[in-house]
Amino acid sequence: MNIVGVIPARYASTRFPGKPLKLIAGKSLITHVIEGAKLCSHLSKLIVATDHEAIAAEAKKSGVEVAMTDPHLPSGSDRVWAAVKNVDCDVVLNIQGDEPLIYGKPLDQLCEVFQDRSVSMATLAKPFQNHEDFLSPNIAKIVLDSQSNALYFSRLPIPHTRNNPRDFGYACVKHIGLYGYTKSFLEKFCATPPIPLENAEALEQLRALWMGWKIKVILTDFESWGVDTPEDVLKVESIMSRKK
Predict the structure, then answer these.
(1) Which stretches of the chain are assigned E, i.e. beta strand?
(2) Is pTM, for the whole model, over 0.85?
(3) φ, ψ for residue 9, nearest 5 deg
(4) Mean residue pLDDT across the chain
(5) Are 102 and 7 contacting, i.e. CB atoms less than 8 angstroms apart?
(6) Is there a contact between 208 and 215 (Cβ–Cβ < 8 Å)?
(7) Do residues 152 and 209 lie in contact, with contact meaning Cβ atoms separated by under 8 Å?
(8) 175 phi/psi in degrees, rounded to 5
(9) Is the CB of residue 127 less than 8 Å from the CB of residue 169?
(10) Which of 107, 103, 106, 76 is closest to 93 using CA atoms?
(11) Structural contact between residues 5 and 47, judged by C-beta atoms closer than 8 angstroms
(12) What is the pLDDT of residue 170?
């Protein structure tokens, strides 16, 4: 199976402009992501999809391909599709460009689920470790069906329980925002305009559920530490220091 990884890296982040170039422990954010993605054993190619020449130049230093994309594309999935639509592949991984702690194992988990030819889209999740994350609107939650497919994603605590409000782990899991898609599914997904439901939750994966597709959810022990603000840089540097 021919699997291509794409790292969307936009310059004009609302909360942190230019963050792919921000130095974290002596390396740019985009370099950390590239180095982690290269540890995936199933990728035939790795591409950085960006709208900015400085990010492109930084990515090329790490020896990966670069696809220049329109800065006005509405989402990361659209940037991924723009990078691979003329690339020969079966499966595409969307590797978030703000995940400097990414490494091979969770990406391999995403790749391997596509050995089941019935899977069109997949993502990662892990059990909640604390009640604060469960309540946070910054963390997406997933309710699963009996086959580990997503029933629904929300930023609100779901499902509501009338019994013990701290019993947060019994019916949902914490979303880790890495995605895999078959190329044919990604084309259909990006050809479908955003829907009111995804706009309300600010979660584009709800479009796939609305379209009637299943999203396979794989449990992982990878803890996502995305860089969304300048303050997150110090947090990630502290984690890197402890890991060393």
Answers:
(1) 3-9, 23-24, 27-28, 43-50, 65-68, 91-94, 121-126, 141-144, 150-154, 172-182, 216-219
(2) yes
(3) -135, 95
(4) 92
(5) no
(6) yes
(7) yes
(8) -75, 135
(9) yes
(10) 107
(11) yes
(12) 56
